[in-house]
């Protein structure tokens, strides 16, 4: 956005200021639209085994969670691990959506787009798939399948 040019005749200066003010208003409207659209972002993820499904809002807060009845055949630590890893994957899904909104609405301000996107990446990193991999073990005598 260009700055108004002063030091010209009165009519030209007034026109320059009016154009500059219109640009400022348009930019403010784009930032308000961006803020509104970012606040509407949500992300949903499911555990690989379908045990847990989690939805988070744009701030990463859990807004919905579904746990399958299969939870009865799992240990508490397995359920907790599935819940936590699914929350992390849902949160990691927010970043790209926010980045897309930022690019669409205020993409001409690369510094802001990069700063916000980087902030989301730091807050909600993509989980390490190797550390998070769930491998099924053979069923125990009672037919229960446990995850490592």
Automatic annotation (TrEMBL):
GO MF, one example: DNA binding
Keywords: DNA-binding
Positions of the UniProt region annotated as Disordered: 109-148
SUPFAM superfamilies associated with the record: YbaB-like
InterPro entries: YbaB-like_sf, YbaB/EbfC
Positions with biased composition (Acidic residues): 127-148
Keyword DNA-binding appears in the UniProt entry: yes
Pfam entry (one): YbaB_DNA_bd
Protein name: DNA-binding protein YbaB
Organism name: Halosaccharopolyspora lacisalsi
Lineage, broadest ranks: Bacteria, Bacillati, Actinomycetota, Actinomycetes, Pseudonocardiales
